[in-house]
Amino acid sequence: MSGRREEILDAALAIADEHGIGKVSMRALAERVGVTPMALYRHVSDKAELLDGMVGRLLAGLLPPDAGKGRAWHERLAALGYAVRGMARRHPWAAQLLFSRPAVTPDAVRVVDLIYTALVEAGVPDREVPRLERLISTFVIGFAASEASGRFGTGSLDPRGRRGRLPEGELPGHGRLAPWLDLPWDLDTEFEADLDDLLRLIKAVAGGRD
Amino acid sequence: MSGRREEILDAALAIADEHGIGKVSMRALAERVGVTPMALYRHVSDKAELLDGMVGRLLAGLLPPDAGKGRAWHERLAALGYAVRGMARRHPWAAQLLFSRPAVTPDAVRVVDLIYTALVEAGVPDREVPRLERLISTFVIGFAASEASGRFGTGSLDPRGRRGRLPEGELPGHGRLAPWLDLPWDLDTEFEADLDDLLRLIKAVAGGRD
DNA sequence: TGTATACGTCTACACTGTATACGCGTGAGT
DNA sequence: ACTCACGCGTATACAGTGTAGACGTATACA
């Protein structure tokens, strides 16, 4: 019932994708739907709930259709990681929102369950599974949010310029690593390496003590 | 010169801490400083720059006074992690903002340098140091942001209620882990365990291939 | 003395989310 | 067939937002 709500959410998604989340106002959204701003409140209680609905809709598209049946746990986890990052690149506005609300929608719970079963299959002790799920998802969402919001970018200053602002010798680390810092780096391979390390971490927790 | 800017930033910090970041408006800030809203623009070009200045000020208070001299690299890293989390707990509004801008201020660069030198000392190959720095800081900030914004909370539904919304058997992971999910969990010890795992990961990268 | 510069005020504009009150059509119940 | 409720949309209005532009004034230096 009430496919109108979905229509509204889709319109909001379209605005966010085209002009950024900042342009999603009740007035702009209403105009896009072809209706008065106040009419939206019949289908959405709040602007906050509207935003929640938007990320919910994205999460729904995140689930692998076949749940990755037949593939190993580490392949399923990696695929999920790539899916999240891909989503964040397509919808840069969404990453930040993922941090703001717990995973309460049915789709979000399903995603969490995928991670749970993968970790169990990896041999992680039951007691540690929820914690590791939070560790992994926190990193993946954090990476996506950082990428989307420019935290990984150099800002207006390039690395050399940034270092130059401080007295020589106060940044021994930067000094030593200078050759690597000036290189342009590729976020694709970086994310891959990060996931690799995290999978290794999971194996360590699985195979380690008790 | 111009200690007025610092005065303004401090006033903004005070408002954010007392009433939340949402109450930091140019008008409210101006009133607190005892001045007209437009007067603020003599010391701050934007509201965005104001917010940047606020997190910059927090980062300045993050540096260990002695830079942790004499302590092992893993102690220094852990101390930094705890410091970030502590900051996020004292100023819940700040965590989200940390994601939005690259670390360009001198203080931020200094913090990054601390991590660099710790990783180098741990034996991480130079080439991998910047990546691992981003991995660690992304997780730590992500954890802090999640905690501050309620992502780790249960929301309005408790875990049992959340599961109940979906047909039985569709959440095998939740089913198996039910005993652990219903337990209240302690974020202090969780963060500790996470840092432990990350330090182990660093050692693995340091001691591993090439 | 003149002038530049730092600092502040006042007014105004274009927005924002949303409370409140009202109107209109449709479908169910008596 | 008459009423009533309800879903859905509209109109108006209010309090709040960031900030552009024009205008003052006081201090410092030529």
Characterise this structure:
The structure is a homodimer of 210-residue chains. Chain A has 210 residues and is an all-alpha fold. The first copy, chain A, folds into two domains: 44 residues, Arc Repressor Mutant, subunit A; 157 residues, Tetracycline Repressor, domain 2, CATH 1.10.357. In chain A, helix 1 crosses helix 2. The model of chain A has no long low-confidence stretch (mean pLDDT 89). Chain A is built from ten helices and no strands. The first copy, chain A, is 66% helix and 0% strand. Chain A is flat and about 60 Å long. Chains A and B meet through helix 6, helix 7, helix 9 and helix 10 of A and helix 6, helix 7, helix 9 and helix 10 of B. The first copy, chain A, binds a DNA duplex (30 and 30 nucleotides) through loops.
Question: Class of the largest domain in chain A, according to the CATH hierarchy?
Answer: Mainly Alpha
Distance between the termini of chain A: 51 Å
Strand content of chain A: under 5%
The radius of gyration of chain A is 21 Å
Please report the two chains with the greatest interface, counting residues with C-beta closer than 8 angstroms to the partner's C-beta.
A-B, 65 and 65 residues
Spatial shape of chain A: flat
Helix content of chain A: 55-70%
Summarize the main sheet of chain A. Answer: none
E-strand count of chain A: 0
Task: Give the number of helices of chain A.
Answer: 10
